[in-house]
Structure formats: structure tokens, C-alpha cells
Amino acid sequence: MAFKKSGGSVLPWLGIAVVIILIDQFTKTLILGAFQLGDSHTVTSFFNIVRAHNTGAAFSFLAGASGWQRWFFVGLGVAAAVFIVWMLRSHGGQRLFSWALALILGGALGNVIDRLIHGYVVDFIQVHYAGRAFPAFNVADSAISIGAACLILDELLRVRRSR
């Protein structure tokens, strides 16, 4: 099978990535249908649902650029996806590592889809405290962040096991 290596099958991990993409796109579709740009709905004293458009990367990095950043981030996302699938083929048997890569893959492709369809990423989760708001984010961003934390944990555990 083309998607099977000695480390395990890549298909379950791709399935997880597809689930992340579907949840991400579904929630963004709900926000686009129910909110106008800039709308905000208070859910709790520290959490709002908002509609924000991000033409940049994390924390709106390069959002003010002249438009080239859209294609740069699409290309970066596609290159990352290819690399992640290659890594999953080689390390599919390493559960925590593969979970991390699957989450990052799903999140990256969820945001790439937004850039291709809209020209920006739809963000809608806003956390705030004491009058200070964290930049809005989405399900894809959450998956990428959790995946990155899992990669760090996997490395710490790997180093600990090698001692």
C-alpha cells in the first residue's frame, strides 16, 4: 500500500486531519452566516464570539502587506502539508508525534482553504481578561497550537526515555 510504511499506516492520521478541517470549515461557515465583520457576542466574562478577518499569519503578522502574503501563506501551508504527510509516512507508529502532526496538518489546511476561498482567514474565538483581549483565533489555530504543544511534549518524553 502506498500509504503504509514500517512505522504504521498514515490513513488514520490523515483521517484526524480531515476531521479537523471539517470542524474548522463548519464553524467558520456558521460565523460567516451569522455575523458581520466586526460583530461580537459576549458568551462569558472572559470569552466572546466575534467575526474577524486575518490576512496575515499568527497575531496578524504581515496583515498590512500589499496582498502577496496570501499566496506566500498558501504556499507555506501546502509545503508544510507535504512535509507533514511525508513525516507521517515515516513515523505513523509513534502515536503522540503523529497526533501532533495530524492536528497541525488539519489546522494548516483549514487556514489554507480560507485563504484560497476568501483571501483571508476567518477568526471567531476571542478570549479576554481585565480589559485586554487576546487576538481572535479559530479551530484551525487551536489545532495547530495543541499539535505544537504535543510535539514539545513528545520530544521531552523522548529525551527522558533515552536517559
Structure in words:
- The chain has 163 residues and is an alpha+beta fold.
- It has one domain.
- The chain is built from 4 helices and 6 strands.
- A 4-stranded antiparallel sheet has the order 3-4-5-6. A two-stranded antiparallel sheet has the order 1-2.
- A hairpin with a 2-residue loop joins β1 and β2.
- α1 runs parallel beside α3.
- The N and C termini lie far apart (36 Å).
Secondary structure elements and pairings:
Layout: E1 4-5, E2 8-9, H1 11-34, E3 40-44, E4 47-54, H2 68-91, H3 95-118, E5 121-129, E6 132-133, H4 139-162
Antiparallel strand pairs: 1-2, 3-4, 4-5, 5-6
Number of domains: 1
Look at the helices and sheets and give the structural class: alpha+beta
Overall pLDDT = 89
Strand content: 15-25%
Give the overall shape.
globular
- What share of the residues lie within helices? 55-70%
Q: Could you name the ranges where pLDDT drops below 50 across 5 or more consecutive residues? A: none
What string gives the helices and strands in order? EEHEEHHEEH
Write out key terms for the chains shown.
single chain; 163 residues; alpha+beta; four-stranded antiparallel sheet; two-stranded antiparallel ribbon; 6 strands
Can you summarize this structure?
Helix content is 59%, strand content 17%. It is α+β, with helices and mostly antiparallel strands and 163 residues long.
